[in-house]
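Dear support,

Our group has been running a series of protein-ligand predictions, and this particular one with phenylalanine is the one our PI (initials K.S.) wants archived with full inputs and outputs. We had some confusion internally about which version of the output was final, so please treat the block below as the authoritative record. The input we submitted was:
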Amino acid sequence: MKDFENNMCICYHNFMNIDKLKKEIDLELGKLKTDADCVAFHQKYLSKSGEVTLLMTSLRDIEPSKRAEAGATFNALKKQTEERLFKTQREIKEREQYMKLMAEPVIDITRGGMGGNAPYGLHPITIISREVEDVFMNMGFVIEDGNEIATEYECFDSLNSPAGHPSRDMQDTFWLSDGRCLRTQTSAWQNYMMKKYGPVFKAICPGRTYRNENLDATHDTTFFQVEGMMIGEDISISNLIYFMKQALTAVFKRDIKVRLRPGYFPFVEPGFELDASCIFCKDGCPICKGTGWIEFCGCGMIHPHVLREGGIDPTKYQGFAFGFGLTRLAMMRWGIKDIRLFNSGNLEFLKGGAK
Ligand code: PHE
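Confirmed final output from the archive:
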């Protein structure tokens, strides 16, 4: 009987002092600063022998008529305390993780490379390709991605270069045993693009190209090109000049002049070699061989045969096409003197050191 009275006394005491306990919990929660504080708080109030849990276990000693009400109150306090502790603990953990992260050196894999300040970075071809894509996308061009293995038709026949045509000799080709080839030019994607988009479109297709070259500082078997096409009604050489000038000016971030010289490619008529004003000098340097102009790319008005092969009526629509070396552009941009570095896996090169 005496024990029972004592228990009752404790419970009564606890129940009556629940407001005091709540205030204490409020105060303690406000003081939590570290994860360890949270663990200690849990131990003190919410563990098996914690003060809030003990309230629950003492319920059975409360007068039966008051048990339900007391139980609901204790339960509410337990739930509320757990939730508040959980929230605080999560915030503290996040803050601790953030502080830890901030104390570490920053790693941004998209920075650095080619003169950036990090000892790693994107490959120069990736950097320049993304820049070129941005420039053309801003001018309304679609970005296409062609297959690196092309059929003979895609790479040559559809481009007005049938078997036996001397123009095929301009591009020493890796033939596969099934008659297909590694595309020697991104122009291999022209026919596909015309069939996909029909007679009115603007698109570029950057990608890897392959030729059976003897390796030296300016020749590699694997390099990157960007093909560009614009087809529609009343498209003329002025459109070609305009877009090339805009694109080069955006890539080099300075006013670039362009000029056309006659050039031969079987799939354009008239065909041109496009020169860009030298980015290294004003009036002649060894790179532009004293001319002030750098040979930049092949281009021209798409040959009527090529349009027809693509399902486009050349009497109604015209277009221009250009194809430039992305690898060459990167070499110009960063003053890289040896093309073989691009596929060398040389880490110094990726850091911007070896050129
Ligand atoms: N495909 C040509 C080359 O690789 C470049 C080119 C593309 C020329 C489009 C004219 C038009 O040399």
